[in-house]
Request: fold
Amino acid sequence: MDPEGGSPRGHNQRGPSGGDQLGGDHPEDSPDTQRFQRPLVVEPVQLARHPLLPDGTVDLLQGARKDLYLATSLEMRVSPAWRGAPDDCRRVLDRLEVEHLRHRLQQNGALVCLYDDFVEWGVRRAAVRLAIEQAVALGFLEITRRGYPARMEVRVPSLYRLTYVKSFQNTPAPTDEWRNLKSAEEVRQALKRVRAELDAERAMKRARRHA
Reply:
């Protein structure tokens, strides 16, 4: 699956050409990290979660408590991992924090954000996959379930957990894997490995297509 394609928001097609909007989709991956009791099949109509404002942007406040907030530690903010996080990586985390707040801090580990959501937040579609994997490599994010195809025009979305936020309703406590990176050099090496792994994966897919 090429994560750089996909149909625009509002289209209910979730076939082979549009599945990437679910974020981090890998058809070859099995859902072996399903920790939370969530529907295995998400119908296309269910994925149109947010109403639109008159200017066409998503209304993320409708139905949400506007007085909630997230607290992050000073230790994290001055850590090598946070200081070395690329801009798109931070945008991915920002958007998932918004989703966490929208669900009243009760669904961390089962957060759903589509590629379109990240694009609307300022990440280029071609850079979404890399930004997600960078957030994982730096210890700020866990993909608790990778998206996969279920049946014709239906896909199961990826689920995410922010490792550094507090939650309610029996969701996981913060695990703070970002602490494992002790220096700026370790951060650079982690980001370098992510890019190399994605480049190798894409090269393998191109080779299979042309075989």
The first strand starts at residue 141 and ends at 145. The chain has a mean pLDDT of 78. The first helix runs from residue 44 to 47.
